[in-house]
Amino acid sequence: MANSEKQVAVIGAGVMGEALISALITYGISPSAITISEKREERALELIQRYKVANSSLSANVAKCDLMLLVVKPQDMADVLAEIKADIRPGCLVISFVAGKKIRFIADLIGTSANPVIRVMPNTPALVGAGMSAISCCGLVTAEEREFALGFLGAVGKVIEVDEDLQDAVTATSGSGPAYFFRFVEAMIDGAIALGLSQADATTLTIQTIVGAAKLLDQSGDTPTTLREKVTSPNGTTFAALNSFNDSDISGVVAKAMKAARDRSQELA
Predict the structure, then answer these.
(1) Which of 105, 134, 164 is the C-terminal boundary of a domain?
(2) Could you tell me if residue 194 is inside a domain?
(3) Taking the model in full, what pTM does it have?
(4) Are 170 and 162 in contact (CB under 8 A)?
(5) The domain containing residue 90 runs over which residues?
(6) Predicted pLDDT at 39
(7) Mean per-residue pLDDT for 34-61?
(8) pLDDT at 246 over 70
């Protein structure tokens, strides 16, 4: 089936749901082929106006779709799957963006072996075309379906494929990772204010420094270690700051946080 002919149902229209709508359209799916299921009337109207997609009840949407994107909260997943079980068409490709929920969990609740399932861990920078996604495919997924998933997610960032048992590690790395970064930015702004800078100046200095450093990391071809060493003169200011980080066991702190995220992802299963 050609991309333009696919009927796509997007179940859940929050921040990530919107990012995926944008990805589909960027990839070449016609907005007229995309239907969301969103109970919040104001939110549905916002997306209809912004992307020219349609809104429909869950049952009607699922009954006509060739491809379903599940973008609901983990705690709502079982109820949603129970509700759509009777309506889902054989052969409909199900792509789940739900943290922690395994392919087997989805297949069992749908109660059919006729639906290929792809599990994806995305992240929110997809909203600005800089997302990072990891996909895992079940045995029913065709080469064409796999390429489609890689293609439309690649339209808004980078994509890798991993064994499903590594999805919890992906969640702890790239899925939750943007929030680690934002928290560090908050801490830097607070630190700058404590040194006497105004909140406005502290914010400008910090954000531009972080954005510039990320761009340098992305475009220079150097490793993080090389870039760090280039900025760090022996016994200089950067050296002093990095020693403070190391004294606080920054690697241990980050690893502990990532393990907590990984463990929570496993609990959500």
Answers:
(1) 164
(2) yes
(3) 0.89
(4) yes
(5) 3-164
(6) 85
(7) 95
(8) yes
Question: 213 by DSSP, 3-state: which?
Answer: helix
pLDDT at position 269: 78
Q: Side chain identity at 95, as an amino acid letter?
A: I
Is 112's pLDDT higher than 90?
A: no
CATH number at residue 132: 3.40.50.720
| Alpha-carbon separation of residue 4 from 31, 32, 33, 94, 156 (angstroms) | 9, 9, 7, 18, 19
The per-residue pLDDT of the chain, averaged, comes to 94
Q: What DSSP designation does 87 have?
A: T
What does DSSP assign to residue 162? -
141 lies in the same domain as 181 = no
Contact 131, 122 (CB under 8 A): yes
Comparing C-alpha atoms, which of 131, 97, 133, 99 is closest to residue 117? 97
HEC sequence for 119-143: EEECCHHHHHCCEEEEEEECCCCCH
Q: What is the pLDDT of residue 1?
A: 42
Determine which helix (DSSP H) or strand (DSSP E) holds 11, and give its type and residue range.
strand 8-11
Looking at residue 232, its amino acid is T
113-145: burial string, b at 16+ Cβ within 10 Å, e else:
eebbbbbbbbbbbbbeeebbbbbbbbebbeeeb
**What value does the mean pLDDT take over residues 193-214?**
98
Confidence bin at 111 (pLDDT 50/70/90): confident
Pick the last residue of a domain from 142, 164, 186: 164
